[in-house]
Amino acid sequence: MHDFVFPAVSLPESASLLRQQVRDFLKKERDAGTFTPRKNSWSDGDAEFSRKCGQAGYIGMVWPKKYGGQERTALDRYVMTEEMLAGGAPVGAHWVADRQSGNQILRHGSERARQLILPKIAAGECFFAIGMSEPDSGSDLAAVRTSAVKAEGGWKITGTKVWTSSAHRAHYLIALVRTAPKEENRHAGMTQFIVDLKSPGLKLSPILNIYGAHDWNEVVFDKCFVPDDMVVGEVGGGWNMVTSELAFERSGPDRFLSTYQLLLASMEQLAEKPDARSVNEIGRFVAHLTTLRRMSTSVAGMLTKGEKPILEAALVKDIGTAFEREIPEIFRQLIPSEPLMDNESLDFDALLGMSTLKAPGFTIRGGTREILRGMIAKGLGLR
User: Fold this and answer.
1) Dihedral through CA 38, CA 41, CA 47, CA 48, nearest 10?
2) Residues 314 and 353 in one domain
3) Which pTM was predicted?
């Protein structure tokens, strides 16, 4: 049985200085009109803002300097991430590349892939998408059918990925595919590939969300060629890498700060005439936020030590999802408002409307709650 332990982590002194530097950077960019705070900033991207983040050294912070990084700690990066999200910065363009894809390439990619791609990511000039989900395999990644067969100098991929966020804005995609037939061990025979999204034999089709915006894509591979030096890790070792990758995706502050702007705006609305219920709910949300932050920083500390806190990350994501979803649900009951479907406005009605609209999707991205709870139950010895 797995022991769920979240050791307390003290942020280094350098983190306090970095926090102020990031706040100063964001204020400067806001005052210059570069951006206005976004409701769900890590899914809203601005390529020019990403380049400015790269120039400031806020992308690839933990990577070696020879690949464009700053050689800082995961806790330093945590502080930067926290400030970007709390400030509503439009970091979505480079988010996946910085959070997980670049780390996978650094740890398991070929030297050519590292030299070709990592400096561009760190400069805010190269963006990534995630190619995991398929028509018949969402959270159950062991069911993937997209396959790759060996060819001269590389591999040819055939199959379909869906719900691929921002692939139409990205330069590359890391795809999880089968390179060997499915065996009794469903997790064997899978490999990850770095795919150039301009490659012949690859077609993107938009999937519109509920309010008509183009966030997702269907990606169809038709004998799409990928060179050998764009294989990530060992052939057949994709499952272990994708599960460790998900620890980065599931445990960060982006898993509980998606509706932070609405929380702040709601507190301002209720501050004028607080009643017993509103005071109670705000206190409860602040307590939950404090606890989630403690758990999330603890996972960041584990990652700094080279550990693989896969189950701890799943727990952070599950609890964080519930927190994010509950904020619009509770405050629409407490504050008289006519929610608006306006993704650009920062008026309270628009904040509430768009947060309410997007909240159901929080339970799906990064793994559905049902799958995560199954993992947690297994870790506790209950399955």
Assistant:
1) 50
2) yes
3) 0.90
